[in-house]
Specification:
The complex is a heterodimer of chains A (155) and B (184).
Chain A (H helix, E strand, L loop, with lengths): L1 H11 L14 H12 L17 H15 L4 H12 L14 H27 L9 H18 L1
Helix pairs in contact in A: 2-3, 3-4
Chain B lengths: L7 H16 L22 E2 L10 E2 L10 E6 L4 H17 L3 E6 L3 H11 L5 E5 L3 H5 L7 E6 L3 E7 L5 H16 L3
Parallel strand pairs in B: 3-4, 4-5
Antiparallel strand pairs in B: 1-2, 3-6, 6-7
Classes of the chains: A mainly alpha (155), B alpha/beta (184).
Chain lengths: 155, 184
C-alpha cells in the first residue's frame, strides 16, 4: 500500500521532470532540447516522452541531447544519435521507410475503403428511386383505372 | 461482389481471432523494445575497473577477439533482482565454463566492491559505468540486462530482466548454443 502511494506520489510530479541542473544557459539551445526531448520516447515508462519522465535513463538521455546540441549537432543528428542506440522505437513520429509503410498507409487505405463502401451503398440505394419520365400505354391505362376507382370510392 | 458478401462475417471473425491470438499471447511482451544492436558489432565504450577490486576494466576491444561467446551482464549493487541473477550466473560460470564479463551500471565503486566481496565475483572483467553513458551506448533501459557477444565481437542476443527463472536460463542457454554453432 505504501509502495503504491509512493509510486502515485512520484507520478504526480512527472509534469516537471526537467531538473534545474539540466537546463542549458542558452535559451535557444534549451528550447531546441525541450522540443527534441518531447519527441523522444522514454524506454522505461513507455508512452511518456523523456521530457516529462522521471526515469534515470530518461534523465541521462536529456543530458545527452543537451550535450549533443552544445557540441553543435543539428536536431536531426541528435535524433539519429539516439535512434542508433535505441532504435526507431524511441521516436514518437515514426520515420517513413519500408518497415513503416504499413503503419502509415493502413489508416489511409481504411479511410479510402470506408469512403468507397459508403459511396457504393449510396449509389445503389439511389438507383431504387430512379424516376420514370414517360409512362407506357399499359401503365397509363392502369393509372386511369386506379384513379377512377378512387374517385368512385370517394364520392 | 455479391458472392463474397456471405463469407464476410467469417473473414471478420478470423481476423479478430488472429489479432486476439497474437495480442493476448501471454509470452508476448508489448513493452519489449527490440535491440538495435542485434547482429551489429559491439558498441564503442571504455570503462575502468571498479576501484578497490582487482578485476580489470572492460572496453570494446576486450569483446572483439573471442572464439567463444561472451555474456555481457549489466548489473548494479542497488538492483535487487541482480542478486538472484548473480547466483545463477556464478553457477553457470562454475559448471558450464561460461565466459562472463560485467558492466557495473551507475553504482558507487565502494558499494559495488562490497557487493562483489560478499557474493563472490564470477566476472572476468568488470567495467565501472558510473555515469551510465556506456549503458546508453548499449541501449539499455535498466538493470539487469544481458547481452551475448558472438565470435568476432558481434552482438547476437539481448535479454532484459534477471536470468533467474528456468525460462530465462533456458533462453540464455539456447542463445549461447546458437552463438557457439555460428563460428566464422
Amino acid at each position: 500500500m505504501i509502495r503504491i502511494l509512493l509510486i502515485l506520489m512520484f507520478c504526480a510530479t512527472t509534469a516537471h521532470a526537467v531538473e534545474p541542473d539540466e537546463i542549458l544557459s542558452d535559451p535557444a539551445l534549451e528550447a531546441r532540447a525541450r522540443a527534441i526531448s518531447a519527441d523522444l520516447r522514454c524506454v522505461v515508462c513507455q508512452n511518456e516522452p523523456i521530457d516529462t519522465s522521471n526515469a534515470g535513463v530518461a534523465r541521462d538521455l536529456r543530458l545527452l541531447v543537451r550535450e549533443r546540441l552544445v557540441a553543435g549537432d543539428t536536431d536531426k543528428q541528435v535524433f539519429d544519435y539516439v535512434v542508433a542506440r535505441y532504435g526507431d522505437y524511441v521516436l514518437f513520429r515514426p520515420p517513413w521507410k519500408p518497415t513503416t509503410f504499413a503503419l502509415w498507409l493502413t489508416p489511409i487505405a481504411l479511410a479510402i475503403l470506408g469512403m468507397l463502401s459508403v459511396l457504393l451503398i449510396l449509389s445503389r440505394s439511389s438507383k431504387g428511386f430512379a424516376t420514370i419520365e414517360v409512362l407506357s400505354l399499359e401503365e397509363e391505362a392502369q393509372l386511369s383505372e386506379i384513379t377512377k376507382t378512387k374517385e368512385n370510392r370517394d364520392t | 461482389m455479391k458472392k463474397f458478401l456471405p463469407i464476410l462475417p467469417l473473414c471478420a471473425a478470423i481476423g479478430i481471432g488472429v489479432a486476439g491470438w497474437w495480442g493476448l499471447n501471454p509470452d508476448r511482451d508489448p513493452g519489449a523494445i527490440p535491440s538495435v544492436l542485434i547482429d551489429k558489432p559491439v558498441p564503442e565504450f571504455e570503462l575502468a575497473s571498479i576501484a578497490g577490486t582487482s578485476t580489470p576494466g572492460l572496453k570494446t576491444q576486450d569483446l572483439l577477439e573471442n572464439q567463444e561467446p561472451i555474456l555481457v551482464n549489466v548489473f548494479a549493487s542497488w538492483c535487487v533482482p541482480c542478486r538472484a541473477e548473480h547466483a545463477v550466473l556464478a553457477r553457470m560460470v562454475r559448471e558450464e565454463n561460461l565466459n562472463l564479463v560485467g558492466i557495473n551500471y551507475k553504482d558507487k565503486p565502494a558499494t559495488a566492491a562490497k557487493w562483489l566481496a560478499e557474493l563472490g565475483n564470477p566476472y572476468r572483467r568488470i567495467g565501472s559505468d558510473e555515469t551510465g553513458r556506456a549503458g546508453i551506448e548499449w541501449g539499455i533501459s535498466g538493470v539487469p540486462e544481458t547481452f551475448i557477444v558472438g565470435p568476432g565481437g558481434k552482438v547476437v542476443f539481448r535479454y532484459v530482466g534477471p536470468i533467474s527463472s528456468d525460462a530465462a536460463i533456458g533462453k540464455i542457454r539456447e542463445a549461447l548454443a546458437a552463438a557457439r554453432a555460428d563460428k566464422p
